[in-house]
């Protein structure tokens, strides 16, 4: 089973790229972030014609998450508990082919310090509480998406540049470690413990051409799924396509 994630950075504006990549990569399941469209504007028909069922949680101009699947898909949740006033489209969850899949777009949190960073920290705490609940079900679970966290120095081309960036602040990284300590496996890092891996390259200063990247997109797998992990790949060449997202798609393969 091949499961992918991609911060598409505007699904309708980049639908041609998405369909091209789906045809080439042939994933079974895809988690998308930053749809930047309302629910009614989501291109469900185009994706269904391409063989993918979908559920989505959109938001006008910002955020938005979706899960695509070649298999039957049953939505189990949208949004996280802990803040009834949070209306952002940042989390959606489904049961697919025996696996619970949570698709998330964690807040960026910049500028630090500030209210956006405070919101980010609270959101991670809410995710951590939900992750613990998911673990208790005894089912295979994957929490997938754009975490907007660089967990280690290997996840950025220039760590000293990001000392006061919300993506690299110790407060966020410590909460990431607390999440892992529940028993989750960072899939790509487990496969490549010493390798610099990037999933995002800024549009500015030819970051992609210089390979000045960041690893912001992650697969967290519980024990039942981590034992089935075969490989993981970042399709970095897609970042170089015309009119590309600033993120590349990445995927894992499960036994």
From TrEMBL:
Keyword annotations: Hydrolase, Magnesium, Manganese, Metal-binding
Keyword Magnesium tagged: yes
Binding site for Mg(2+): 7, 34, 146, 148, 246-247
Classification via InterPro entries: AP_endonuc_1, AP_endonuclease_F1_BS, Endo/exonu/phosph_ase_sf, Endo/exonuclease/phosphatase, ExoIII-like
Lineage: Bacteria, Pseudomonadati, Bacteroidota, Sphingobacteriia, Sphingobacteriales
Stated name of the protein: Exodeoxyribonuclease III
Required co-factors: Mg(2+); Mn(2+)
Endonuclease/exonuclease/phosphatase domain ranges (all copies): 4-247
Family: Belongs to the DNA repair enzymes AP/ExoA family.
Cofactor-binding details, from the entry: Probably binds two magnesium or manganese ions per subunit.
The keyword Magnesium appears for this protein: yes
Annotated site residues (Transition state stabilizer) in this chain: 148
PROSITE patterns: AP_NUCLEASE_F1_1 (PS00726), AP_NUCLEASE_F1_4 (PS51435)
GO MF annotations in UniProt: DNA binding; double-stranded DNA 3'-5' DNA exonuclease activity; endonuclease activity; metal ion binding
Gene3D superfamilies: Endonuclease/exonuclease/phosphatase
Marked site: Interaction with DNA substrate: 247
Pfam families for this protein: Exo_endo_phos
Residues under site feature: Important for catalytic activity: 217
An example Gene Ontology biological process: DNA repair
List of catalytic residues: 105, 146, 247
Organism, scientific name: Mucilaginibacter pineti
């Amino acid at each position: 089973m091949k499961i992918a994630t991609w911060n598409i950075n505007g699904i309708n504006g980049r639908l041609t790229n998405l369909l091209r990549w789906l045809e080439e990569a042939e994933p079974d399941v895809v988690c998308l972030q930053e749809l930047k469209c309302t629910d009614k504007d989501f291109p469900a028909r185009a994706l269904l014609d391409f063989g993918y069922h979908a559920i989505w949680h959109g938001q006008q101009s910002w955020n938005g998450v979706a899960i695509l699947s070649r298999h039957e898909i049953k939505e189990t949740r949208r949004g996280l508990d802990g803040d009834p006033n949070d209306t952002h489209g940042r989390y959606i969850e489904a049961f697919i082919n025996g696996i619970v899949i949570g698709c998330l777009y964690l807040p960026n949190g910049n500028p630090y310090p500030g209210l956006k960073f405070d919101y980010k920290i609270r959101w991670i705490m809410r995710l951590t509480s939900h992750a613990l609940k998911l673990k208790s079900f005894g089912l295979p679970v994957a929490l997938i998406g754009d975490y907007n966290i660089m967990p280690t120095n290997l996840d950025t081309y220039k760590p000293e540049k990001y000392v006061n960036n919300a993506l690299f602040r110790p407060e966020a990284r410590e909460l990431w470690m607390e999440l892992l300590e529940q028993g989750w496996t960072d899939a790509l890092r487990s496969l490549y413990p010493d390798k610099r891996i990037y999933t995002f390259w800024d549009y500015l200063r030819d970051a992609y051409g210089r390979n000045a990247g960041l690893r912001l997109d992650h697969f967290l797998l519980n024990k039942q799924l981590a034992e089935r992990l075969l490989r993981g790949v970042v399709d970095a060449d897609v970042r170089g396509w015309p009119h590309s997202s600033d993120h590349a798609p990445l995927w894992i393969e499960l036994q």
